[in-house]
Each structure stands twice: as C-alpha cells, then as structure tokens.
Design a protein that fits this description.
The complex is a heterodimer. Chain A is mainly beta. Chain A has a single domain, classed as Porin, CATH 2.40.160.10. Chain A is built from 4 helices and 19 strands. A 16-stranded antiparallel beta barrel of chain A has the order 1-3-4-5-6-7-8-9-10-13-14-15-16-17-18-19. In chain A, β3 and β4 form a beta hairpin. The longest helix of chain A is centred in the first third of the chain and has 25 residues. Chain A starts with a helix and ends with a strand. Chain B is mainly alpha-helical. Chain B folds into 2 domains: about 220 residues, no CATH class; about 130 residues, Cytochrome c-like domain (Cytochrome Bc1 Complex, Chain D, domain 2, Orthogonal Bundle), CATH 1.10.760.10. Chain B is about 30% helix and about 5% strand. The N terminus of chain B is likely disordered. Classes of the chains: A mainly beta, B mainly alpha.
Chain lengths: ~375, ~425
C-alpha cells in the first residue's frame, strides 16, 4: 500500500469514527444496559476495529510499517430467554497476525449464582483477557504481561461453571479447557512463549487443564481478581514411541482496578511456571513473570461535544520471560492523550518507550509515536 | 451488550461507557484539582515535543559503535543481501522448523552477543581422539541440548577436550579477502630471524562441498584462517558447520541430522524434513558475515599513542600484526584496502598454560591462531560489562590475557611485565581502544 493510499484509508476511518460518534450523539440510542450494539434486546450484532498510524523506531531505525489495522472484531450475541445465551465472536489481532475465535459459547443460567457454559470462550486469566475491546482501552498496545505472558486474546474450548453471589460483589468461574499445547516450546523461537501454546480450536495434548477466577467487586469502580490455570501441555508420544513424561504449566494472574483521587487505576500481574524437559533447560524458561499498572484521568469533560471527554493515561509494564537469565525481558512506559466519544469511539495520541533485553542482556530500545482511532460498529 | 445478562465472573462488559466513565461520573473529582494540574500532562507532552522526536523515538548508535553494522561502500543490492542475511542470522529456530535433534543453541545470534564474542554460558566443547574426530562418540562437539525424544550428548571418557568461546563474526569478510600469499609471507616456521617467534599457517583440506568456486575451497589443502586454531578455510564451511553442529539444522551441504550415536535412535522426533534450510539461507548468512564491518578504533590520545609505540617496542605486533592489505574480492568494497585486524592469522605455540593438547588440522595442542584485537573497544558493552578473552574466556582483562601468554610469546610477555606500571597501562589502554 502506498503512503498516499494509507493516508486516504486512515482519513476515511477517522471520518467513520467521527460519524459514528456524531450519529450516536444525535440519536443517543444506547444506554448503560443497551451498549454499543445493534438489534433488538435479544440479539446483538456488532464489532469493533482499530486503525493505527505511527512512527516506530528500533534503535533509531524507523520500522517501515507505519500504518496498520491493529484489530478487527465481530460479534453476535443471542439471548433467547433470561436463562439461555449464545455468543459468536472473532478477532483479528494484527500484532500477532492471528485470527482468534474468542467465543463460540452457549450458556445456561439457572440462577445468578450458577451458569453452566461451554464452547470456546476467553480464559478467566485476568481482567484484560476477559475485556479488551479496543474502543474502551486507554492504550493502543495491550500490556506486555497481557500479550507476552497470558497471550491475550486467549480463548480455548472448554466447559465450566460461573456465577455471582452477594448481589454481585463476589464472582467465580471454574472451567475445564483444552489447555496449552507444547507449541509454547516447539513453536517458540528463542525461549518459552506461552502465547505460542494457545489452543484456540483443537486440543492441546489430550488432557484438560483447570482454570478459574475468583473476583471481588466491593463497589462499581473496584474489582480484585485472582485467576489461574494448571494443566499438562505436552505430547508424551510420537506415534507409539514414548518421548517424554507429562509436563505441566501453571499460570496465575492477579488483577485489580479502582478509582482514587479522581484517577482510574488498574493493574495486572502474572506468574508462569513451566515444567521444561531437562534437555532444554537453560534455553527455555521455567519461570516467567510480568506486571503492569496504569493510571488514567479525565482532563476535560465535556470537550467539543456533550459526550466527548479528554483523558490522559500513563502505564508502566514489564515482563521477564526467563527469570533465570539476566536478559530475555522487556520494560515499557506508555503515555496517551485520548478523546473518547463515550462509549463507542476513541482517538488516541500515544507515545511509548520500550527496552527489550536479549539473552545476553543487551538492550534494544524501541519507541513510537502513534495516532489510533478505534470504534464499535 | 443488548440484553446480555451481566452475570458471571468478569467477561466482556460492553454495556457501560468508556473505562473513564466511572471517573466522569465522579462529581467530586474536579474539586480536588485545579485547572493547572489538569494541564500538567499537556505541558509534559509539549516538553517531549520540544525535546525532539529523535530523542523521543530512540537514536541510532554512531558509526563504528556496534558489531552488526555493514561495511561502508556496499551498493544497494549488497545492502539488501546484508538485510536478508541479518534476518537469517537472528532467526531462532523452533523444534517444528528443525531445531535439533541435538544442538547447542537456537540461532546464530544466540551465541554471538550483538555479533561479537560469546559468553562462558554458551561455550562449546570440542573433543577428539588426537586427530580422529571421534564421530562414533558424537565428536567433534558436544551438543548438550536435545528436543523431546532425543538424548543430549555427554562427554565420553578418554578423549581430548577443548573449550571454545564463540568468536566475533564481524570483519570476517575482510579476513577472507586477505590473499593466502600475504598470510604466508608472515610465516617463520623455523624462526629463521631468531626472534623466538615462529608463526606458521594451518594447512587444512576443505570438506568436499567447499568447491574451488568458494574462497578457501578446493580439493587441495588451503590456508586456514577462521576458528581459534585457524582450522577452517572458508566461510561456507564455518556457516554450514555452525548450522549443523550448533543448531542442528541441516542444509544440502550437510543433509543428515546430527544424532547422538551413543543413545538409542528414535525416529520422527525431529519433525522437519531435511534439508531444513535452503542453500539461499546459508548464502544469506555467509554474505551477511562477509559484509559486517569491524568497529572503528577509539580516538588518539597521548597515552594511547604511547601505548601504540610500546605495543611495537615489546614486540606484541610481531604476532598481532596491525595492518593487512586485502586483495581482490567479489564484494568490491572489501577489495584492496588496509585493515587493522591486529593478527597475523598464523599459529603460534602459546605454551603449556593455554594448551588444550588437542590437535586441530595441522595445529598441535599448544598452538593457537593469533586472536584479532579489533573490536576490543566496545566488547564489554555486549558482555554485561565484562571481558572474556582467550579461546575459552578464562582471561577477564587484557592484563590477565597477556600474563597467560607462554611458549613463543614468553619473551614478549616478560618484556611487557618489565615495563613500568604506567607504560603497562598505556599499552593496555591502546589495546582496549582497538
């Protein structure tokens, strides 16, 4: 795509974002319960998309990809009764160049405290994996712990239970899912990478993994959650020949969000423990961790129009993909000035600076100035 | 979400406003802050902008400050080849792509820090029975990693062992461009000049796949110039062997997987078909290394100039030859230029202290190729601030390395150690500025 054509496409996209925002402002058809989707109460059809224009440099050298479609999502949610729901949702995620089927899910709720659901659904590993729509995010890039450790968007086939108690102040989810595959090692270059072991469609290894999350919601603005997954990840046989014993992966994610002094605070931290065959230890990590914390604050509300606000957000995040090494880690700070047309659209002016360390602990600095536009449609 | 029941643990809640909405609805927030503090982020952004996009978006290291820069004078086509080769050099192989079955590391770049030398953690262990490479025991190199289903090698009993730190890969194209006759002109195998130093070439017969079309190829013995004992004559062999022995990647030149001969064979554990890379990838890496420039030396200072004089006076320069003239080369910019490699590329007996007692080609157990000194100036930057010198990285400073010189270098070493400490410092400063 030529630069001129890219500018034209981007301008058209921004126009679309503005048009959607304006149309929403004129009709004001959505509400807290209706949300940014189309159709009658029992049917929601929609999606969201994000375009990114940016100047990214690695060690002073400009990345040739300065224009991209970051994310495209489509969803259909069907609620034939108060007990039944069905969902279909897919996302093309450009940073990983993967299409992820986030939901092919059926749920039956007998009571608020008990819903049985099955199909493909996002693993309850942190708030970000459960909720990462582009127009709602303060940042274009998801956090390092989300993308490098948890593998957001990370959805797998499975079956489980979930529900709430104490008028929604306590929520739980527990599922059996297909679990990670040995792709986290065999498909991974340069070390253990859990996202390479995601099994979005098929079975990872013939054995299920157990995953779940417990969360507290003391008030509307506060949530604390603890999620985890444990299960085997490898094939133990090639044909009829036993080649290895069963290897396990454990992943724990603590997340929280709250408001304080006029700011919205959110954070997530994860730890992964991987049972690596002895013959690969030293090159493939057995312990990984990552964390991110972000703060955002409304600067002006309204600005320009009634439903438009201007916010500023800061985030610090880090991930260590091999705790046994000095290197194989990344750290990043991000800042973003965002114009939200609530809740459908956002335009962000962002900057980030990242230090990536190779296995020798050599630093490779990377930074970018970005302009992104994201909207529901 | 229209009609979507808001129950369960987390989940995509598309029914609310933006993440800031809770704050928007917090009527109290504005009272805590003045308009000024709302402007702080805007001011910060303005400051960033004034600071300049270049610094905001990282800056490129200056010329000669890295090991992975192309040599000057390449044309556009050659620069394109350089980029292709850099990608291949950095490519980390997965098991699915052919890594293993037994191997040492996953990519070229995994052993050569920033394209410079390696660290003791990724040292290679070579072994043999005298000149017999002990292929039946898994020689000539231990592969201590293995993919699931394969068995890593362990050191067999009764073999000769040599530990080798991965060498720098920059500047090898310039070394390749030095005519054999120029290297041979520096030989003095019988110490005819009586200076106690008797360098000689390592004559090595290239493997059959290194044909006469390749520099250092052919059926007759050629002058070895790469490797710690100058045991390799061509970059093609160096590249093919590194893929095969270090990463377990087969090419058409060595098309059979490297298995552990002392372990039971398990078919099918390496899922990739052989050859696992094409000749183009091998060629890309070879061309990349050819075009890597050596870092530029540091600025002249009075102390360094004094050190340079002493470097010649105590006869370090007898082996660490400061300057060579390259001959014709297919890459035009490598041709006919003076290079400051600080090595004569010949074998020298460095004494019992450094001997590994393991022959390599015609090099005996105490002979080593004179190590090039170029790139010393920025070596620490790529080794976590440390230095690992000599063939196995045992020396952590230039002074340590000099002290460990023996054999032919004993007299030079003693001459250095007899210098006043400020002169020793000046000489070391000069060496570390190369």
């Amino acid at each position: 795509m030529t630069r001129a054509m890219a500018v034209l496409v981007f301008a058209m996209w921004v126009s679309t974002v503005l048009w959607v925002s304006t149309a929403r402002a004129q009709t004001d058809t959505f509400s807290i319960q209706d949300g940014p989707a189309h159709g009658p109460d029992w049917l929601a059809i929609g999606g969201h998309g994000e375009l990114r224009l940016g100047e990214d440099r690695v060690r002073g050298v400009t990345n040739p990809e300065w224009f991209s479609v970051s994310r495209v999502n489509g969803f259909v949610h069907f609620t034939p009764s108060s007990h039944w729901r069905m969902a279909l949702e897919g996302t093309f995620d450009h940073p990983t160049d993967h299409f992820v089927m986030e939901r092919i899910e059926v749920g039956f709720r007998s009571a608020p405290s008990l819903e049985i659901h099955g199909g493909i659904f996002p693993l309850p590993l942190g708030r970000v994996n459960l909720s990462h729509d582009s127009p709602r995010s303060e940042f274009t890039e998801l956090s390092l712990v989300a993308t490098q450790l948890i593998g957001v968007p990370n959805a797998m086939p499975g079956l489980g239970l979930k529900g709430t108690a104490h008028e929604g102040s306590l929520a739980y989810e527990v599922d059996l899912v297909t679990g990670f595959s040995d792709g986290l090692i065999t498909e991974s270059s340069g070390g253990t990478r859990l996202p390479m072991g995601r099994s979005n469609y098929g079975d990872g290894n013939g054995w299920p993994a157990l995953t779940g999350r417990l969360s507290l919601h003391p008030n509307d603005k506060t949530e604390w959650g603890l999620g985890g997954l444990t299960g085997p990840y490898n094939d133990t046989q090639v044909g009829s020949v036993a080649v290895d014993e069963t290897r396990w992966v454990h992943l724990f994610v603590l997340d929280g969000r709250t408001s304080w002094a006029g700011m919205r605070l959110a954070g997530e931290a994860g730890v992964a423990i991987i049972d690596v065959p002895p013959s690969l230890q030293g090159l493939y990590a057995q312990d990984q961790w990552g964390a991110s914390i972000e703060a955002s604050r409304i600067l002006f509300d309204p600005i320009f129009t009634k439903h438009t606000s201007l916010s500023f957000a800061l985030r610090a995040d880090a991930v260590d993909l091999d705790r046994a090494q000095d290197g194989d880690s990344r750290e990043r700070v991000s800042a973003s000035l965002n114009i939200h047309r609530q809740p459908t659209s956002v335009m962000r002016f962002g900057w980030y600076y990242e230090l990536a360390r190779d296995r020798f602990a050599n630093n490779t600095p990377k930074a970018g100035l970005t302009f992104t536009a994201a909207t529901y449609f | 979400m229209a009609g979507w029941p808001q129950f369960g643990s987390g989940g995509e809640d598309r029914s609310g406003a933006s993440p800031c909405n809770g704050v928007v609805q917090d009527a109290a927030f504005g009272r805590f802050f003045t308009r000024l503090d709302r402007l702080i982020p805007c001011v910060l952004i303005g400051v960033f902008a004034a600071w300049g996009c270049a610094d905001l978006l990282t800056t490129e290291p200056g010329p000669g400050e890295r090991f992975d820069q192309p040599i000057d004078g390449l044309d556009n086509g050659e620069l394109g080849d350089f980029q292709d080769g850099q990608i291949q050099f950095r490519r980390a192989f997965t098991i699915a792509e052919g890594l293993g079955p037994i191997f040492n590391n996953v990519s070229c770049a995994s052993c050569h820090s920033g394209d410079g030398r390696g660290v003791p953690e990724n040292i290679l262990t070579r072994f043999s029975r005298s000149t017999d490479l002990a292929l039946d025991l898994g020689g000539p190199q231990i592969q201590d990693k293995a993919i699931p289903g394969a068995h890593p090698e362990t050191l067999p009993d009764g073999v000769l062992v040599s530990h080798r730190l991965p060498p720098p890969v920059f500047g090898v194209g310039l070394i390749e461009a030095i005519p054999e006759s120029t290297i041979l002109a520096g030989q003095d195998p019988n110490d005819a000049n009586g200076d106690g130093i008797s360098g000689r070439a390592n004559w090595v017969t290239p493997p059959p796949y290194v044909t006469t079309d390749e520099i250092g190829g052919g059926t007759a013995p050629r002058v070895g110039r790469f490797g710690r004992k100058a045991q390799v004559t061509s970059l093609l062999q160096q590249t093919v062997d590194a893929y095969h022995q270090d990463i377990g990647i087969t090419s058409s030149y060595r098309a059979t997987d490297n298995d552990n001969p002392l372990a039971p064979a398990v078919n099918g554990v390496d899922p990739a078909d052989d050859p696992e890379i094409g000749d183009g990838s091998v060629n890309d890496v070879m061309q990349y290394m050819r075009m890597l420039a050596p870092p530029s030396p540091g600025e002249h200072t009075p102390i360094r100039d004094r050190g340079e004089t002493l470097f010649s006076q105590v006869r370090c320069a007898s082996c660490h030859t400061p300057t060579f003239r390259t001959g014709p080369h297919e890459i035009e910019t490598l041709s006919n230029r003076d290079i400051h490699v600080y090595s004569d590329l010949l074998l020298h007996d460095l004494g019992e202290e450094l001997a590994d007692h393991r022959p390599d080609g015609s090099a005996d157990g105490s002979e080593w190729r004179t190590a090039p000194l170029w790139g010393m100036r920025i070596t620490r930057e790529f080794l976590k601030g440390e230095l690992f010198l000599l063939h196995d990285g045992r020396a952590h400073s230039v002074l340590d390395a000099i002290r460990l010189h023996g054999g032919e270098a004993s007299a030079v070493r003693d001459a250095f150690l007899a210098l006043p400490s400020e002169d020793q410092s000046a000489l070391i400063d000069f060496v570390e500025s190369r």
